[in-house]
Amino acid sequence: MDKPQIILHVQKPINYTLYDTRWIPSSAKFVVVGSYARGTGAIQIYEVSRGEIVLVHEVEKAKPIKCGTFGATANVHLKHLATGDFDGMMRIWDMEATEAPVYSVNAHKEIINCIDGVGGLGIGEGAPEIVTGSRDGAVKVWDPRQKVDPVATMESGDVECRRDCWTVAFGHAYNAHDRCVCAGYDNGDIKLFDLRNMSLRWETNVKNGVCNIEFDRKDISMNKIVATCLESKIHIYDMRTQHPTKGFASLTEKAHKSTVWLARHLPQNRDVFMTLGGSGSLNLWKYSYPPHRCQQDSEGVDMGKMGTLTLHQNVTLSTQPICGFDWSPDKLGLAVCVAFDQTIRVLIVTKLNML
Amino acid sequence: MDPQRMAELQLQMRVNQSELEQYVHELNNWEDDIKQKEVQLKKCDRSQGDVAKETSLPPIRNSLEKKKKRKKKKQVSSNGDTSEVKTNEAQKPRRIRSSDYKSWDKFDVEKACLEIDDGETKSSSSEYETDEEWEAERKIKQAEFLKDQGNQYFKDGKYDEAIECYTQGIECDPTNALLPANRAMALLKQDKFAAAELDCTQAIALDSGYTKAYFRRATARERLSKLMEAKQDISTILSIDPANKQAAKEMAKIEKLLNPPKEPVGIVGPVDKSPSQRSKKPLRRMQIEEIGLDKEEEVKRLHRKNVETVLAKQSEVKKQVTARDEATFDAFVKQKKDTPCNSVGSGSVHSSVTPKETALENIDDIRQNGSESPRELGQEAGVLNLKAKSSSEHCTDKEPSPRTSPRLPPVPTSSFQFQTDWKALRNSPEMCFQYFKNIECRHYPKLFGQALDADILPRILSILEEFYIPNNLDMYAVLESLTRVKRFSMTLMFMSAKEKQCLQQIFKHLRTAGLQSESDIASLAKTYQV
């Protein structure tokens, strides 16, 4: 009876390929980015209004845009979308004036697969920063106050074994100094970089390419991450306790019977997240902590202990992979997703507050 | 299908429907609210908020250094082997290909070096919550470093520099008790006793169980003539560490200064005369009166019961000893006659007197030297006296007690042996001299080891002054070897003015003798702080 319902509220077919979507903070609008058939980039702003979505603004750019984030928007007055495109350019657009970027940098040699921001909108302490991951194997951190050069670069010294970076995520930004970046690669590597110490803090390999990594919260001392992989694997790591040799405790779940493209945590509840499958399915999960998150191994060293993961709802909305999903930060249960079937969908998830 | 289940399903669908309707209604309201809010936000001056935010932002990451690729990692091969982790500093140079001129242009050697230097500190800093904590830790480390530097300066005798280092260290880490204590030591060296006392007080405030600080304060206070306070400090040390010999010695010294011992009546002090000035008359037998025997009387009462048994035992032992000692004793006496002797009081000189008188002489002897521990010596004297009085029949075939036996101990081979012999020879400087002379200089560090304390060094110096100078023996080697003994400089610090005078005397002689070059002597004198 109390199971949350995932209901398709609005859906709208589009005539171009969609890659990512984000809610514009403090509004009923969201932005979608993608690629027109002629190989140009698209940015469109829609507004949810009385059961339908209305196109507010659209602009065409030279190169297809792969990903975007509002995470580094300095404050709520500004609506700055940071995007990564197929040409390796990272640009920041003012949603009020999209003709020219407010910031533009030739970030990578190849396509920017993923982007994440922190420090803006009151989420995460410290300076607004943007991290990008690219097919060229590099993960770069950008500060919009600094032109041309990244403030940090994490890449392999050996050109031969550079892997395609599929996902990056900020986290651990609970004070002005600490900040971590977690990156996932096509060979199944997950690497956690500590930006404060400029060091590789932890790494592991999950055997399947890592499509998406997300911290449950960016602005707290890192709590847990969810990593979704090819071959229907979901890995959850408890990031509170790091064992000197065993690293972080983890839990693996199989779902979707296909690639798990994305995982997105509910902004209003960090233990609830949605995973998006390659078969167009959406799974709603809730993670439950064990009574004690920390236990001691035989030598008395602290190590993490995993809880349990429960599937609460499961629907299939599309025939094609859902590649973009975003929970509304302002309205509990409101979400938008984009899929390769060239459709924008606005979803309603009820009873989330009862989980 | 089960009708009940059917009904449940229908109910759930209805509930879900109503919930959705409710949600959509809420959503519409929310849309209105958020749109209003958005309009309001737009009205606000956008740049205003912008400026306010910018000012409070932390600096751009890594902006203190030239922007460069900060860190690279080695990617793991595709087979999932995670054993090969990221490259470390050693692999840095080959990251940039030789043909990659652009990268080389940007390559900042200084920064790369800095990164290598920073490597250790960075890796350990992750546990600090804030920069403040990190800074605090850095300061503590800095203070440690300054302390070590100060200690080095101190060893080299550069006290001003050492004090400067300790002062900086105290500024960095005001909680470290070692720094003020070490500064106090340096100040003591410079005779700045009041400042040293203050520093010691500070060190004690930081660490109430720090005996060295108490000791240094006691020294400072003693020099400032604050004897009562000094005594208090010493008693604190003794309460913390009752086995502290240095403190016990210092305690005795302060006690002595506090209550100067009254000149004992009826005891003639040793007469110091050069051989030429001495009377040529033969030794005259003296009638010795016994005065102030109250202590002996007391002891007598106590020991009355034991006396007979003790004496019986002694006579047994001594009979055995006597025969063996006879030869060495004679040889020794002959030798003694050859060498000029300043010590009138030594019992061994009077080899011709009867045993009874020897014993009595010994009493006086002990009294003269015995101001340090009158009780103990009084007891011994009492025993000896009793022996002399009550058992004269035994005395006829008895040699003096082994303690005063002129037998010279063999050259010591261990520190323990040396200390035992040294203690045994305490009351006969002449013997001490003979004994000490036989020890090879190079064995000093081994023999004295940790034990070159305030007892040994002054005695060695007095032997040098009393015997080496008149005999024109080479003192340079002895003095030079002594400096190599552990804790030498420490012992030197706690020498009294009298002992320093003695040192000066020795060096004066060294210079007049002219066996060594002036520069050698000067450098040695510097080591001895003369």
From TrEMBL, chain A:
GO biological process: apoptotic process
Keywords: Apoptosis, Cytoplasm, Repeat, WD repeat
Entry GO CC: cytoplasm
Placement of WD repeats on the sequence: 130-143
Location in the cell: Cytoplasm
Chief location bin: cytoplasm
Cited InterPro entries: WD40/YVTN_repeat-like_dom_sf, WD40_repeat_dom_sf, WD40_rpt
Function field: Key assembly factor specifically required for the stability of axonemal dynein heavy chains in cytoplasm.
Protein known as: Dynein axonemal assembly factor 10
Taxonomy of the source species: Eukaryota, Metazoa, Spiralia, Lophotrochozoa, Annelida
UniProtKB/TrEMBL annotation, chain B:
Cell division as UniProt keyword: no
Keyword Oxidoreductase on entry: no
GO cellular component terms listed in the entry, alphabetical order: protein folding chaperone complex
Compositional bias (Basic residues): 66-75
Family to which this protein belongs: Belongs to the RPAP3 family.
Ranges where the record places region Disordered: 44-97, 337-362, 388-413
Annotated TPR repeat ranges: 143-176
Pfam families named in the record: RPAP3_C, TPR_11
InterPro entries linked: RPAP3 (IPR051966), RPAP3-like_C (IPR025986), TPR-like_helical_dom_sf (IPR011990), TPR_rpt (IPR019734)
Upper taxonomic lineage: Eukaryota, Metazoa, Spiralia, Lophotrochozoa, Annelida
Limits of the RNA-polymerase II-associated protein 3-like C-terminal domain: 412-500
Protein name in the entry: RNA polymerase II-associated protein 3
Keywords: Repeat, TPR repeat
Segments of skewed composition (Basic and acidic residues): 44-53, 83-97, 390-401
Stretches with biased composition (Low complexity): 343-353
